[in-house]
């Protein structure tokens, strides 16, 4: 395993009652890499994301980010160390404007507390102005300028997904976790998304872990693909290799293959 | 030339802020001349509206913004009121230093209550806070506290006059005294909800899991929110006791807590200025209902609360987003109209 890995997942296991959602999963993601995470429904992809964002605590195993174990951190500390995510079922703050959603995404970049905020101290104002400027940039970058002041809950699904992406980026993460960003998008939108994902890596040097059922997209953007099935890792390697791996083909086509 | 994309959002927004300013200026002028247009009991009532409004802002921060229901904010109003009365009557403090102290006492009490309340959601939290409201009058009546609280007899306070030889009546002075605190606390609340913490509060209400993933320490923010909200209620209570000049366990019954909840809904959840309307409603509408029913003759005399109830239901139908929501919608319509005439 490469010592330069940004993320190292080691023998992570998660059980829900009798279900083994993840069974001793191990893999590394190198800095600046795009790693696709594939597998049929229920394979454990989202469960792994939830471990990375500390929503679930694995029964055993270890997760290291930049060489630091993260399983001792509280949920709200994950953003600050540089991990951000989107959600499979879109978890926007529905009543808040698009701009405010993105600003919440930048929460870990600010420090004003209750007192400072209530008094609107000069430092608070400066920080607020900076956060706002950065959020507006992101909003513009993702073509959300026209709906910046609209409640996020009222937007069409495709737009909501872009808001989620912008919100995740507002924390200036080193590692971005995308849970099915292409779900529900049309062909054109998927192509656009592909450009965005590559741009994030190439222009912002971000490392990306991408859960996706859209094989065409995964295979074209990923440097590395990890395949899961029933909670177990069945393949890990370059896209072409994983794509033609017999276990992967069997997992997707069933025993008939 | 196509002007559609830019002509849409921008002018309307900047103009809307304009109307907001006009509205604010009107409220300020109105608040300043009010004590010279009325006197005595009416003026007392207006001051009480301000105190209720302060408590409502606190409750709205908690319930409207942060999504934690409280049926027990009357209890914090009571704690603040008693803290102030005890400090004045038993420790000889000047009345005007007590609201901040009462606020701090309630901040701590609210924070401590908010911690275990973190485990309770929705209706369960409503019940826990309801229990607080139910228990408070009896706690205040507890005989081992009699030396401090005055027991069921309560505490009597002298009515303060205007300081520095100001040429205004005691009632006018007390009104301005409350107005000063209200202005400060409204401003602080507005600052709070517009900043990082305010956004975190709403984010927790809408999507706690996502909020936490964005780095919001949910438990701390929720408990703090409870504390701040209790602080507001406590200051409101302290001011109220000063202008009433008397406090007893019965001053803060369950009905007060329920009225606060009515007030924030009527005024408009997630509106700060709306709390003035809400407070006006809970202070005056029961009176109006009373007057209305007595003017209808003997038979209707027993019905003021029925009238109140009907009014409340009607209001929720006509203004589902509270009075503040209705005013905002009206201002937006007005703005669209002025924009249209400007363009024409
Ligand atoms: N909170 C939970 N409680 C109980 N079981 C769970 C929970 N979360 C996930 N599971 C189970 O763990 C298994 C893996 O689920 P997971 O959501 O990780 O799959 P996935 O790979 O993301 O699938 P999909 O492609 O459908 O999103 C499933 O059997 C699921 O039912
Ligand atoms: Mg999933």
Give the SSE layout.
The complex is a heterodimer of chains A (257) and B (344).
Chain A (H helix, E strand, L loop, with lengths): L4 E12 L2 E12 L3 E5 L6 H8 L7 E6 L2 E2 L8 H4 L1 E3 L12 H8 L8 H6 L2 H20 L15 H13 L5 E5 L7 H18 L2 E5 L3 H7 L2 E6 L2 E6 L1 H5 L2 H8 L4
Parallel strand pairs in A: 3-8, 3-9, 6-7, 7-8
Antiparallel strand pairs in A: 1-2, 1-4, 4-5, 9-10
Chain B lengths: L3 H34 L2 H26 L7 H17 L8 H20 L4 H20 L4 H4 L5 E2 L13 H25 L1 H11 L1 H6 L4 H27 L1 E2 L6 H14 L6 H22 L8 H15 L3 H22 L1
Antiparallel strand pairs in B: 1-2
The structure holds adenosine-5'-triphosphate and magnesium ion.
Q: What are the main properties of this structure?
A:
heterodimer, A: 257 residues, alpha/beta, Rossmann fold, 6-stranded mixed sheet, 10 helices, 38% helix, B: 344 residues, mainly alpha, ABC transporter involved in vitamin B12 uptake, BtuC, two-stranded antiparallel ribbon, 14 helices, disordered N terminus, binds adenosine-5'-triphosphate, binds magnesium ion
**What separation lies between the terminal Cα atoms of chain B?**
17 Å
Ligands and ions found:
adenosine-5'-triphosphate, magnesium ion
* CATH architecture field of the largest domain in chain A: 3-Layer(aba) Sandwich
pLDDT averaged over residues of chain A: 91
CATH top level class name of chain B: Mainly Alpha
N-C termini distance of chain A: 32 Å
> Low-confidence parts of chain A, pLDDT < 50 over ≥5 residues?
none
How many strands, what sense, and barrel or not for the largest sheet of chain B?
A: 2 strands, antiparallel
Mean pLDDT of chain B: 84
Strand content of chain A: 15-25%
Proportion of β residues of chain B? Answer: under 5%
Total DSSP E strands of chain A: 10
Under the CATH scheme, the architecture of chain B is Orthogonal Bundle
Number of helices of chain A: 10
User: How many DSSP H or I helices of chain B?
Assistant: 14
């Amino acid at each position: 395993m490469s010592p330069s890995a940004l993320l190292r997942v080691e023998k992570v296991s998660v059980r829900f009652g009798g279900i083994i959602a993840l069974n001793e999963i191990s893999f590394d993601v190198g800095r600046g890499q795009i790693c696709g995470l594939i597998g049929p429904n229920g394979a454990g992809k989202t469960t792994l994301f939830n471990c990375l964002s500390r929503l679930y605590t694995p029964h055993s195993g270890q997760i290291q980010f930049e060489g630091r174990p993260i399983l001792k951190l509280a949920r709200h500390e994950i953003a600050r160390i540089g991990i951000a995510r989107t959600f499979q079922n879109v978890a926007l703050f529905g009543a808040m404007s698009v701009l405010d959603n993105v600003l919440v995404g930048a929460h870990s970049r600010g420090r004003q507390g209750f007192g400072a905020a209530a008094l609107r101290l000069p430092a608070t104002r400066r920080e607020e102005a900076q956060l706002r400027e950065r959020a507006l940039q992101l909003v513009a970058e993702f073509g959300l300028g026209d709906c910046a002041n609209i409640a996020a809950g009222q937007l069409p699904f495709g737009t909501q997904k872009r808001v989620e992406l912008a919100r995740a980026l507002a924390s200036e993460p080193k590692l971005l976790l995308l849970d099915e960003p292409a779900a529900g998008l049309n062909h054109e939108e998927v192509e656009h998304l592909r450009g965005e994902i590559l741009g994030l890596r190439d222009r912002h040097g971000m490392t990306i872990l991408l859960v996706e059922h859209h094989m065409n997209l995964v295979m074209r953007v990923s440097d590395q693909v990890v395949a899961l099935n029933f909670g177990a890792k069945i393949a890990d390697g370059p896209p072409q290799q994983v794509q033609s791996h017999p276990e992967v083909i069997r997992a997707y086509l069933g025993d008939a293959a | 030339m196509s002007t559609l994309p830019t002509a849409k959002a921008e002018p309307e927004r900047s103009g809307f802020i304009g109307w907001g300013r006009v509205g604010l200026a009107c409220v300020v002028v109105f608040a300043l001349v009010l004590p010279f247009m009325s006197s005595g009991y009416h003026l007392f009532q207006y001051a009480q509206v301000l105190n209720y409004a302060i408590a409502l802002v606190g409750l709205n921060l908690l319930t409207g913004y942060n999504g934690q229901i409280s049926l027990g904010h009357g209890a914090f109003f009571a704690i603040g009121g008693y803290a102030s009365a005890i400090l004045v009557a038993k420790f000889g403090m000047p009345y005007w230093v007590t609201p901040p102290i009462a606020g701090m006492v309630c901040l701590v009490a609210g924070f401590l209550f908010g911690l275990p309340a973190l485990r309770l959601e929705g209706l369960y939290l409503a019940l826990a806070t309801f229990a607080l409201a139910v228990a408070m009058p009896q706690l205040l009546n507890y005989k081992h506290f009699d030396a401090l609280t005055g027991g069921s007899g309560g505490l009597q306070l002298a009515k303060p006059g205007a300081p520095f030889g100001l040429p205004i009546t005691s009632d006018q002075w007390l009104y301005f005294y409350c107005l000063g605190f209200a202005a400060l606390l409204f401003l602080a609340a507005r600052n709070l909800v517009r900043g990082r913490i305010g956004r975190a509060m709403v984010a927790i209400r809408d999507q706690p899991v996502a909020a936490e993933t964005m780095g919001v320490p949910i438990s701390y923010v929720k408990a703090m929110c409870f504390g701040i909200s209790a602080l507001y209620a406590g200051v409101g209570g302290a001011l109220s006791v000063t202008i009433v000049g008397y406090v007893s366990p019965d001053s803060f019954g369950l009905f007060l807590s329920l009225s606060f909840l009515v007030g924030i809904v009527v005024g408009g959840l997630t509106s700060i200025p709306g709390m003035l309307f809400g407070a006006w409603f809970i202070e005056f509408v029961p009176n109006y209902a009373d007057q209305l029913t007595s003017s209808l003759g003997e038979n209707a005399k027993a019905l003021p609360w029925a009238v109140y109830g009907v009014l409340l239901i009607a209001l929720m139908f006509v203004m589902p987003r509270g009075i503040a929501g209705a005013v905002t919608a009206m201002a937006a319509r007005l703005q669209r109209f002025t924009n249209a005439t400007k363009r024409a």
